[in-house]
């Protein structure tokens, strides 16, 4: 059983991290249309169109996730940079002046004393106080996770593009098969 598991992972590499079903290329349209579940060209084309629409929906979700991650990563890196700056200022006895974003395009000056704690906004109306070391560890972990997730989303979007192409080619092949079949039936009558 253990050998089977190892050989299975070698034969079938990870195709999609999000569990996107793979579109199977229809090589032999005659054999494909002879299958019992394919009772008519309209039914098959409708099923392929629904599959294409599902892929489109998945693409929209993944694209919005990619956009969110592309904004989140620089924000996390900027926050980490600020925490490192606080870490460097911690040993200095002097306060320093900084500007911070109060709201869209409104900045405020603040005088910041040396500190060993920082509050991080976690979202969903939650802010927690961390030591500078814990904050840096958390931010580094979140940056690493976000970059890994972005990589997975990019991979899944590439995988989805292949599925679009395969599904569209299948639709064209089935449609063309039907046109040839009708032309042959017309010629024989």
Strands, helices and their partners?
Blueprint: H1 2-11, H2 29-33, H3 41-90, E1 96-103, E2 106-112, E3 117-123, E4 126-131, H4 132-188
Antiparallel strand pairs: 1-2, 3-4
Helix pairs in contact: 3-4
Task: Describe the protein's architecture and organization.
With 189 residues, the protein is α+β, with helices and mostly antiparallel strands. The protein is built from 4 helices and 4 strands; from the N terminus they run αααββββα. It has helices spanning 2-11, 29-33, 41-90, 132-188; strands spanning 96-103, 106-112, 117-123, 126-131. The strands form 2 sheets. A two-stranded antiparallel ribbon has the order 1-2.
* Number of separate helices: 4
Distance between the termini: 59 Å
The counted number of beta strands is 4
Write down the overall geometry.
rod-shaped
Summarize it.
This protein is α+β, with helices and mostly antiparallel strands and 189 residues long.
Overview features:
alpha+beta, 189 residues, two-stranded antiparallel ribbon, disordered N terminus, 65% helix, two-stranded antiparallel sheet, rod-shaped
């Amino acid at each position: 059983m253990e050998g089977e598991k190892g050989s299975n992972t070698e034969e079938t590499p990870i195709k999609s991290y999000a569990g996107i079903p793979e579109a199977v290329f229809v090589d032999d349209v005659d054999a494909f249309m002879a299958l019992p579940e394919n009772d008519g060209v309209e039914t098959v084309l409708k099923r392929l169109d629904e599959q294409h629409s599902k892929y489109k929906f998945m693409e929209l979700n993944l694209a919005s996730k990619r956009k969110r991650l592309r904004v989140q990563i620089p924000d996390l890196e900027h926050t980490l940079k600020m925490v490192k700056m606080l870490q460097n200022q911690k040993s200095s006895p002097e306060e320093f002046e900084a500007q911070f974003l109060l709201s869209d395009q409104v900045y405020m000056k603040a005088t910041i004393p040396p500190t060993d704690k920082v509050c991080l906004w976690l979202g969903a109306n939650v802010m927690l106080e961390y030591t500078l070391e814990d904050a840096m560890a958390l931010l580094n972990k979140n940056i690493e996770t976000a970059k890994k997730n972005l990589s997975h989303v990019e991979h899944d979007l590439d995988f989805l593009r292949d599925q679009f192409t395969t599904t569209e080619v299948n639709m064209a092949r089935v449609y063309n098969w039907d046109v040839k079949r009708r032309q042959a039936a017309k010629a024989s009558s």
